[in-house]
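Re: export button greyed out
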Amino acid sequence: MAPIINTPIKKIAISTGGGDAPGLNAVIRAAALSAIKRGWEVYGVRDGFHGLLLPEEYPSGGLMPLTRERVSGITHLGGTILGTSNRNNPLKYPITLADGSVEEVDRSDEIVRAFRLHHIDALISVGGDGSLAISSVLAKKGLRLIAVPKTIDNDLDKTDVTFGFDTAVGFATESLDRLHSTAASHGRVMVVEVMGRYAGWIALHAGVSGSADVILIPEHPYDIHKVIEKIKEREQRGNHFTIVVVAEGATTIGGGASVVEHEAGRAERLGGVGEKVAAEIHAISGKETRLVVLGHLLRGGSPTSFDRLTALRFGAAAVRGLEEGQAGVMVALDPPHVKYVPIEEAIGKMKMVPMDSDIVLTALDLGISFG
Ligand code: F6P
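Workaround output, generated via the alternate export path:
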């Protein structure tokens, strides 16, 4: 059970950490206006927790006053007005030693002290799995905190969905629609790599909605020969083009995810699997093949109305939760309700695509191959 804290609140802060997701500004606006309505002062922490760890780097000491005027007209904007970072995790903060080697240190106590120094009574911490792990530690160290889940990947457990996912899926679907006509005109194979880390949600939802022929996701390691079979089957039916959606975390049977970079203090960066799949398809089938990596385009732009509404609901619910005395919990969507779950439960495991889910069964009934 998460603790209930009843001391009055006068001043709160909001932070946005990890990769950005469309809807962050809507959370900031809803939380700020809900707090102002209760007579609380609101501050935004700059760039994840950097604003508190390195205040000298910011003109205002790393905290941005969030007035009614400052949060006006931002609901529809992508990104976050506070800035964010998925580097320099405060729990594993990389310090370069005199000999050039890098040591990771835990700076969470400094963050708790910084909140006390600024007389901030509570924090709304918006972030993905990395930020939730940090939030859990800060809550255990006595910081009154409510977390708001965020990721385009939709891989966070204990919430039906996160904002940002719908926007990413919508953009990927539109991209697949556009690629169909050029693929068909040239009789080519188009390989489309999408983000999603170790889960295949974006690839699955966009692939089914955007009429892909093959969807490769981490939950089902692929066999490239099955992909070729699908291309040949389509050729025999007179369809000389094939659309293959590849999640960035997809792997071959027995293989590992394709990692482009692993830097201290941050999660490994995935990428490159689309290139590999496209090269193999061309080498084995001889078909002209092109690769499109949608990458960060999926994270940019204006949130869909669904993502705006979810984000606004989460921001307002976080403030209501603080007012009720909730702490150490994460706001979660459990349609039709927004509820609170202990952060501990949410960080327990990653939400993966169940291969027996009705969306996967729908895809199979439509003739889509998972390789
Ligand atoms: O978690 C969101 C996400 O966009 C993943 O889908 C992707 O693997 C990662 O972040 C990319 O991170 P970066 O912005 O550091 O390249």
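The two ends are 43 Å apart (CA to CA). The button fix ships in the next patch.
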